[in-house]
Amino acid sequence: MPFGAAASGRHLTGSPVVQRSSLREQVAGALRDELMAGRLAAGRHFTVKEIAELYGVSATPVREALVDLAAQGMLVVDPGRGFSVPRFTWDDFVDIVEARSLVIDGIFRRLTGRLSALDAEAVASLRRRADAAVRAARAGRLDVLVGCDRRFWAELGAFAGNRRIGDYLDWLRVQYWIFAAGYLRGRDDAASFCWARHLELVDLIEARDQPGVHAMLLAYNQESLEQMSALCGRALPEGQTTAGPPARQQPGQVPPPREADPRPAATQ
């Protein structure tokens, strides 16, 4: 499906996604959503002019938005051709999950007692986010899930009390979805590969069970690897256990997604 036609049908009917108040951020946000949901295939090329025409805005804020996304590793600059969607490999995905596990492990080693300081309102808000994510995951509604899941983890990440850590975890999550969504997109059984234990995690948080929360988060990362291993048909990293961060797999074990495959290289 052509990018312009696909995005136009979703975003430019009714209230437009791009608002004049913040064009650069709005364009970047709209494209980030496209990438996370797997609607832009790995290797897909596009130009500033194409995106500007799609959203009906001038080239300057579009160029700024694309450069911002490229600086964040979400797009690749193709000299003379514009921009393209990166081709993340299995090693990239393993690195993403490993980084997430290490950061989470560090948070819980240093922030003992953090959960005891949470108020009821914060937990209630997180529960609403969790409920939305679970419903989307169980229905296999990928377009809805990527947004709900990201908002849930962003709110949970704020509990660490360190904005830079939260921003880094959010960056990892976006890249995680860019890799993962293409493998899930279009599958009738997508729900069986989507983690849906958000509410259980909130229950542990509400109970102030810090060891339980820590264990579930590490187990979640392990499950992410297992899900993608099954979808990609690749072995888990050697020596991988749920007791700690994943070990790195040897390079070159996963070929890039097939160009003709309508499901770009991506997962949960």
Low-confidence stretches at least 5 residues in length (pLDDT < 50)? Answer: 1-15, 241-268
Rg result: 19 Å
* Distance between the ends: 22 Å
Mean pLDDT: 81
- Measured as a percent range, the helix fraction is 55-70%
What is the β-strand count?
3
Return the domain count: 2
> Strand content of the residues, in percent?
under 5%
Order of helices and strands: HHEHHEEHHHHHH
Describe the largest sheet: 3 strands, antiparallel
Classify the secondary structure makeup into a structural class. Answer: mainly alpha
- The number of helices is 10
What's the architecture of the largest domain, going by CATH? Up-down Bundle
Detailed description of the structure:
The chain has 268 residues and is mostly helical. The chain has 2 domains: 82 residues, Arc Repressor Mutant, subunit A (Orthogonal Bundle), CATH 1.10.10.10; 143 residues, Up-down Bundle (Four Helix Bundle (Hemerythrin (Met), subunit A)). Helix 2 crosses helix 4 and helix 7 runs antiparallel to helix 8. The longest helix is centred in the C-terminal third of the chain and has 23 residues. The chain is globular, with a radius of gyration of 19 Å.
